[in-house]
Every structure is written in structure tokens, then in C-alpha cells.
Amino acid sequence: MRKFSPLNLAAIILGVGFLYLPIAILVIYSFNASRLVAVWGGWSIQWYAELAADAPLLDSAFISLRVALISATAATLLGTLAALALVRFGRFRGKLLFAAMIYAPLVMPEVITGLSMLLLFVAVAIDRGFWTVIIAHTTMAMCFVAVIVQSRLIDFDMSLEEAAMDLGASPARTFLAVTLPLILPAIVAAWMLAFALSLDDLVIASFTTGPGATTLPIRIYSEVRLGVKPEMNAVCSIMVGVVGIAVIAASLLTKVGGARGTPAQA
Amino acid sequence: MFKSLMKSKKNHSFWQSLVIRLPFGWLLAFFLVPFLIVLKISLSQTAIAQPPYAPTFDLAAGWRGVQTFFAGLSLDNYRFLGTDPLYILSYMKSLQIAAFSTLLLLIIGYPIAYAITRLPRRAQAILVVLVILPFWTSFLIRIYAWMNILQHDGPLNQLLLALHIVREPPSWLSTDTAVYIGIVYSYLPFMVLPLYATLEKLDEQLLEAAADLGCPRWKRFWLVTLPLSAPGVVAGALLCFIPIVGEFVIPDLLGGSRTSMIGQTIWMEFFANKDWPTAAAVAVVLVCLLVTAIVIFQNHAMRGSERD
Predict the structure, then answer these.
(1) Which of A139, A195, B208, B255 could connect to B251 by a Cys-Cys bridge, CB 3.0–4.6 Å?
(2) Are B140 and B249 contacting, i.e. CB atoms less than 8 angstroms apart?
């Protein structure tokens, strides 16, 4: 058995504390009754109440949600196809380029992805707005989806598909009845990631958006650039809460669907 | 096995080609072509020679830009980057911040990853989730959380004053220190996870053998654990260094206005100066820098694996 020293314990406590304390402080301050950060004015939900009346902010949140839903779904579809093409179809013409285009966006600085997208939309004279943001987010997220689904496909036990086909199932039926259910947990996880990436993105959206399509991160960014605001603490706390719930739900979902090893009670 | 696969391939060549063509076409149209356009614009227009071009780049001018492209290919934008110290300083600043914060991340991340491998299996799994979880919350929110903490009368200064560590509250925001804090905070999961993955696979018997042969503890770590975790170190450094170079949000919200990182420079050229050709040239040079960095990292990784 490996030894666990006090030093190890300190590293873990400090590490986890460092990761979670700032978010905890943010959430606590969102309930501060005082407008001044330095002063603790008691618990209050007034900033949350003010949010409910902030129409432009709610509007942005709604736009962001729609963008994330559509782009995550499109990205999951395209990314899954890309993963299938990479893993299952052996060699085909342009495979190297294809693989390069899957991996390159993962390391490309967002500023450059955003810039290049914008120049494309300008070059083909498409008005920027809601749909251009969706196209940009789909492109970025599909590469993450492809990588996640690909890793699942590589681990895939081919004998299951062979068994189905030996028993007379058509390839289409084999895919729907055997392959798809087995890779579904990865697809669901990839969709969640794509959704989170879209909801989170500031830089690419800033380049590709137009009038009338101000996403939530763009709104938050323009508010907080000049300093801390209690209303923004409340918005951010809500987003942390939503993401937290979604991640926990997703991890439960993948455990139920794809159980490797024991179903956890964690 | 092959037979059934071959058969399915023949029967479903239409579907198969669709599976490839759909994502392939999408990436060609929305990733490769846009990048070629960036390349083209970085070569085709000179901001100094044609000032009227810069302020109003409307749709019509965009088309004209494409049309005059063949007539006027030039490297002027790149020459301009070389002559104006603003850009060189910005690149240097980005590389310097990325290099130093990657080092910080290694120093902070290694003990955490190492400590996780010492735990029982079940606790390991929980801690890995705990390390990943903050990655799911918005980047912007995590940086904003630090704006709360680091502001002049924020919790950090209050704590420092209460503990009598400082007399005057220092200003943290708009300093490089704040940028480093923000980067280390945001990228810590990217460093800890690859380190953990390699350390977890480490063969305990090697350490036992070293101990049996009388090797002291610190020396075992130095001679066995550390060299064997090199792939994780390289992977973690790559995962952190590359995106940090192009970082925009962190230096913009936490950093000072005197020198900006290259991501900010591109943003400024674009949104504030409306100098799109220069922004495109800055972007192309950045991509070249990053590709060079990736190749260097890859070579190190290859050499590392050859040694094994």
C-alpha cells in the first residue's frame, strides 16, 4: 500500500481549497446586502430580485441558452459522424487533413478562431447575428465531441457488432441496436460539454455576433470590465448552480447508461 | 470478420460517404477556408499605405479586398509587425507569461497529482472529479471571482490587513501577479490531470527495488518517480502553455493596460483600431509560433519515449 503522508494531505487540502474558495466567495458575496464589497451588510437576495427585472440581461440569457442548445446538438451530430469516419472507415482520401482539422481547433486560440470566422462571414456577405454564432460554436464544439466519441469507439468491443451481423442484422440495424446504445454515454457527455462550451464562450461569440444577438457572456463581460458589481455576482452564482446541477446529472446519467465497474455511491 | 465488414462497406457506400462528407465539408467550410481568408487578408492589404481602408471595412470593401488580392500580394503587414516594437513586445510578453505560469503550474500541480495517487482508489476517483468540476463552470465567472477577491477593499486585502501582514492594502488588479493568479487558477486542472494519469500508472515495484537497494526517499523520487512521470509533465505543459499564449479574457480582466498579451493585441487591432489586415498578420504569426512550440514539445516527448 502506498503511504499517505501529512505533506500529501496538505497538498490536497490546499489544492482543493484553492480551486473552490474563489467560487464559494463569489456565491457568498452574491447574498451580501451591501453594495460595497468591503462591507458585509447581512444576508439578502435583493441582487437576485433585481436580476428578475433586468430585461436585457434575461434576454441575453435566453439567447445564450438557445445558441447553446442548437449548436450543441449540431456539434454532437457532426462530431459523432466525424468520430465514426476516423475510427471505422480505415483510410480514405484526405484523412490526414480531416484528422488535422479535428485537432487544430482544439489548440487554436479563440481569438484567431473568432477572427477567421468573422472574416469568412464578411467575405461571403452574411449578416452576423444569432446564426453566425451558432455556426461558430458548432465548429468549435464538434471537434471536442469528435475526440470524446472517438475514444469511446476505440475501446469498443467489435465482436458485439460482428455477433449482431452474424445473426443477420443489417448494418443499419446493427448500428442502431448495438453500436449506438453502447456509445450513447459518450455522446451524451459530449453534448453536455458542447453545451457548456457554447454557454461559456465570450471571445468567439464577440467576433461572430451582430446586433440583437448579445449572448450572456458578452453582456457579463461588458458589465464587469469596469469593476465588480453585486448584480453580476448573482448572475454568476446562478450560472455556477446550473452548471453544477447539470454536471452532477450528467455524471449520474453516464454511470447509469454506461456503467464501467461498479455503479458508484459517490 | 473482414468479410462482413467488407460487405457492409459495399452496401452502404452512400451512407458511408455521407458520414465522412458531412463533417469534412463542414470543417473545410468553417475552419480551413476561414483560416485561408485570414492568410489572404494578412497579405493583401497594407494598413499604412491605404489608411482609408482601415476605419470602414464594410461588406463592399470586403469584396473589393478579395478582388484586388491578386494584384497586390505583399508582405508589408509582416514588415510592419517587425518594425513596431508594440507587437514584438506583445509576443515576448505572451511567451514569457505562458512559460512562467506553466512552470508555476508544474510546481503547484505536481504535489497535488502526486498526493492524489497516494489515496485509496475510491478517494482518488472523487478527487479527480473535484479537480475537473471547476473546469465546467464558466471561464469568465472564475476570473470574475478573482476580481472580487483581488479588488482593493476585497477579501484578500482585508485578510492581509487583519493579520497585520501588510500596513497598506496593496493593489493586485492590473498587475502581472493578478494575471499569474488567474492563469494558474484556470489551468490547474489541465496540469493536474495528465500528471495524475502518468503517476498513477507508475510501477510501485521499481520504487520498492530502489528502497531495497538502500536508496533514500528523496533520491527515489528524484531518480525514479520524476523521470518516469516525464510524459505527464510534457503533456501537462503542452496543454497549458499553448492556450495560455493566446489567452485573452484573463489578461484583459486582471492585467494592467501597459503591456498587453498577443490575444489582446489582436482584439485591439480588430475592435478598437479596426485594422483588420494587421490583426490578421498578428494572428498568422501567432499560429506559426504555436505550431513551432507544439513541434518542440512533440520532439521532447519522442526523445523521452525513446529513452524508455
Answers:
(1) B255
(2) yes
CA distance A215 to chain B (A): 13
**Contact residues on chain A for B119, CB-CB shorter than 8 A:** 4, 8, 12
Show the domain range for B220.
37-46+73-307
What residues of chain A, 131 to 170, have a C-beta less than 8 Å from chain B? 135-136, 138-139, 142, 146, 158, 162, 165-166
Q: Is the dihedral of CA A38, A40, A44, A46 positive or negative?
A: negative
Q: Is A187 on the interface with B (CB under 8 A)?
A: no
Check A139 against B267: CB less than 8 A apart. no
Query: pTM of this prediction?
Result: 0.84
Contact A37 B287 (CB under 8 A): no
Q: In angstroms, what separates the C-alpha of B216 from chain A's closest C-alpha?
A: 15
Question: Could you give the number of structural domains in chain B?
Answer: 1
In a domain, residue B293? The reply is yes
Chain A: residue nearest B24 by CA? Answer: A98
Query: B5 and A78 in contact (C-beta within 8 Å)?
Result: no
- What chain A holds in terms of domains, given with CATH numbers, is 54-258 (1.10.3720.10)
User: Which DSSP string do the residues of chain A spell out, in sequence order?
Assistant: -----HHHHHHHHHHHHHHHHHHHHHHHHTTBSSSSSSS---B--HHHHHHHH-HHHHHHHHHHHHHHHHHHHHHHHHHHHHHHHHHHS---TTHHHHHHHHHHHHHS-HHHHHHHHHHHHHHTTPPPSHHHHHHHHHHHHHHHHHHHHHHHHHT--HHHHHHHHHTT--HHHHIIIIIHHHHHHHHHHHHHHHHHHHHH--HHHHHH--TT---HHHHHHHHHTT---HHHHHHHHHHHHHHHHHHHHHHHHHHHHH--SSPP--
Q: Report the complex ipTM.
A: 0.83
Residue type, B119: L
B88 is a domain residue: yes
C-alpha closest to that of B201 among B231, B221, B223, B222: B231
- A34 reaches B (C-beta below 8 A): no
pLDDT in single tens digits along all 308 residues of chain B = 444 444 444 455 777 788 888 999 999 999 999 988 888 888 765 544 333 233 334 445 555 555 554 555 677 778 888 788 888 888 999 999 999 999 999 999 999 999 999 888 888 888 888 888 888 778 888 898 898 888 887 888 888 888 888 888 888 888 888 999 999 999 999 999 999 999 988 888 888 888 888 888 788 888 888 888 888 898 899 889 999 998 998 998 898 776 689 999 888 888 887 778 888 888 999 999 898 888 888 787 766 655 54
Instruction: Write the CATH number for B202.
Output: 1.10.3720.10
Torsion of CA B28, B29, B33, B37, to 10 degrees: -170
Backbone angles phi, psi at A225, to 5 degrees: -50, -40
From A15's Cα to the closest Cα of chain B, the distance in A is 6
Residue position matching grid coordinates 454532437: A76
